[in-house]
Amino acid sequence: MATPSPSRSFLGTLTLVFVAIAGISAADMFLAGMERKESRIEAARLFRQGQAAIARGDNKEALDRIKDAIAIERGNRDYLRTLAQAQLTAGKTAAAEATLTDLLQSDSTDGLANLIMARVLAKEGRFAEAISYYHRAVYGQWGQDAAANQLRARFELIDLLAAHNSKEELLAELLPIQDQPPGDVKLRTRLGQLS
Question: What is the C-alpha to C-alpha distance for residues 159 and 191, in angstroms, rounded to an integer?
């Protein structure tokens, strides 16, 4: 019986090493994918707990759970926007502003983030800045139901302007709403009250 040549033996060993590396790499990628999936599930569970705490009015619990969810899934914009809203509700306007500033640096057209920032600034008494962010919310990008969300943002701005007796700016905000369909009775009633 002939003994295999050293080059053939080396090639066989090298092939086995590459097959083993490929197998380990595939297993590692599978396990990493499973870990990412489990992490997302855990983050979503913590986020739901945070939302439930918000609904109960438990701001501390809400902030803790949402921060835990963000620690697991850092780039989730929904979690960050909800954190900012919870911070605002808890009276932590500086923290909310910092969270929103980071969010808006990565996407300045985020309608909801702009709306929450407008609320933060209005609460702090920074009305000129709040008006600017309300405009960004009105003309910003919304994930779903854009027209209704933009209209809601515009009405929040209108309420702010009416509360500060800014008649010229108020008129400028009311004019675009005049083009809304006449069948919306609630909208027409609200416009009549503002006129």
Answer: 11
Domain boundary among 17, 45, 74: 74
> Is the separation of the CB atoms in 146 and 112 below 8 Å?
no
pTM greater than the 0.85 cutoff:
no
122, two tokens: 């209005």
When computed from its CA atoms, the radius of gyration of the chain, rounded to whole angstroms, is 27
Compute how many other C-beta atoms are within 10 angstroms of the C-beta atom of residue 154: 19
Say how many Å lie between the first and final Cα of the chain, rounded: 105
CATH number at residue 107: 1.25.40.10
Both 97 and 185 in a single domain?
yes
Number of structural domains, the chain? 2
How would you write the pLDDT of the chain (195 residues) with one tens digit per residue? 556 566 677 777 777 777 778 778 777 777 667 777 788 899 999 999 999 999 999 989 999 999 999 999 988 999 999 999 999 999 999 999 999 999 999 999 999 999 999 999 999 999 999 999 999 999 999 988 998 899 899 999 999 998 888 888 877 787 777 666 555 656 555 655 555
Q: Is there a domain that residue 56 lies in? A: yes
Rounded to whole angstroms, how far apart are CA atoms 80 and 77?
5
Burial of 157 (0-12, 13-18, 19+ CB in 10 A): buried
